[in-house]
C-alpha cells in the first residue's frame, strides 16, 4: 500500500495516541453495537472495518464482542500500538492495514466504523470514499462515524472535509438513518481548547431488494 500522505504529521498523531489510549470505547460505537445486537445480528462471523483506528481502543472492543475486524490507519505507529494491545487469542480475527483509507478496496462488511477519521480525508477524495464505504456494506449493514460541520474551528484552516447540515442530509439519502445528531460546543482537542461542530451518524444500508420473480414462490399464491 502507498505511503501515507500524513507522514509529516506522524509526531502529532503519536501524541494523540498517547492522549487517547486510556479512554474507554467511544459511546457512538457502543450505541451502534447495542442497536445492531438489538436488531438480532450475532457478532460471531461478522466483519467490521474500522477506518482510522488510532490507538485501537474501539477495534479491541469489537474483537472483545466477537467481531472480525479489518483495522485501517494511515500511521505505522497506530499499527504498532494496536498490535501490542491485542491479546493473542483475538489476533486471528484481526487484519491491520496501514495506508490512506481513500486508496483502499474494502471487503464486503457488516459494519464500517469511522470515529473522527473521515474528516481527515481530502475534500476532493471524499465523494469516492463515501461511495466505497456504501458499496462495501451488505444489505442490513451499518455505517457509524462522524463528519465535521462547516462551523468547526478548523474549517478554512486545514485541508480536511467539512460538511454543512444540508450536505450531511444529502449524504444520508438512500440510507436508513438510525442517528443524525449535530453537536456544536466549546470543548477540547488534544491540541487545546476548540470550537467543535460535528455530526454523529449511524446509518443502515437498506436490504437489497429482490427483482420481481426472483426468490422462493409463495405456494398459496401459485396458480399452477
Ligand atoms: C482523530 S484520530 C481518531 C482515532 C480513533 N478513531 C478515535 O476515535 O480516537 C484520526 C485517525 O485517522 C487516521 N487517519 C487520518 N487520515 C487518514 C487517512 N487518510 N487514511 C487512513 N487513516 C487516516 C489518523 O492516523 C488517526 O489515527
CATH topology group: Rossmann fold
Terminal residue distance: 57 Å
Structural class: alpha/beta
How does CATH name the architecture? Answer: 3-Layer(aba) Sandwich
Query: What is the helix fraction of residues, given as a range?
Result: 25-40%
Report the C-alpha radius of gyration, rounded.
Answer: 19 Å
If helices are DSSP runs of H or I spanning 4 or more residues, what is the number of helices? 6
**What hetero molecules are in the model?**
S-adenosylmethionine
Identify the overall geometry.
globular
Give the low-pLDDT segments. Answer: 1-7, 215-224
Q: Mind telling me the CATH superfamily name?
A: Vaccinia Virus protein VP39
Q: What's the number of domains?
A: 1
Mean pLDDT: 89
Number of strand segments: 8
CATH class categorisation: Alpha Beta
Oligomeric status of the shown chains? single chain
**Biggest beta sheet attributes:** 8 strands, mixed
Amino acid at each position: 500500500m502507498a505511503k501515507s500522505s500524513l507522514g509529516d504529521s506522524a509526531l502529532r498523531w503519536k501524541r494523540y495516541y498517547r492522549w487517547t489510549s486510556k479512554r474507554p470505547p467511544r459511546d457512538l460505537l457502543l450505541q451502534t453495537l447495542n442497536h445492531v445486537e438489538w436488531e438480532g445480528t450475532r457478532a460471531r462471523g461478522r466483519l467490521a472495518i474500522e477506518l482510522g483506528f488510532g490507538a485501537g481502543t474501539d477495534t479491541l472492543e469489537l474483537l472483545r464482542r466477537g467481531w472480525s475486524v479489518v483495522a485501517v490507519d494511515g500511521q505505522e505507529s497506530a499499527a504498532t500500538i494496536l498490535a501490542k494491545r491485542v491479546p493473542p487469542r483475538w489476533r486471528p480475527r484481526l487484519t491491520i492495514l496501514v495506508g490512506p483509507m481513500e486508496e483502499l478496496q474494502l471487503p464486503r462488511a457488516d459494519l464500517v466504523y469511522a470515529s473522527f477519521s473521515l474528516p481527515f480525508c481530502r475534500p476532493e477524495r471524499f465523494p469516492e470514499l463515501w461511495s466505497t464505504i456504501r458499496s462495501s456494506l451488505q444489505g442490513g449493514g451499518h455505517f457509524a462515524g462522524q463528519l465535521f460541520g462547516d462551523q468547526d474551528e478548523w474549517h478554512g484552516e486545514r485541508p480536511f472535509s467539512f460538511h454543512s447540515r444540508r450536505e450531511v442530509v444529502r449524504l444520508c439519502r438512500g440510507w436508513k438513518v438510525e442517528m443524525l445528531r449535530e453537536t456544536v460546543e466549546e470543548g477540547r482537542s488534544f491540541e487545546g481548547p476548540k470550537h467543535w461542530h460535528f455530526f454523529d451518524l449511524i446509518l443502515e444500508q437498506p436490504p437489497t431488494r429482490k427483482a420481481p420473480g426472483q426468490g422462493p414462490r409463495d405456494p398459496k399464491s401459485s396458480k399452477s
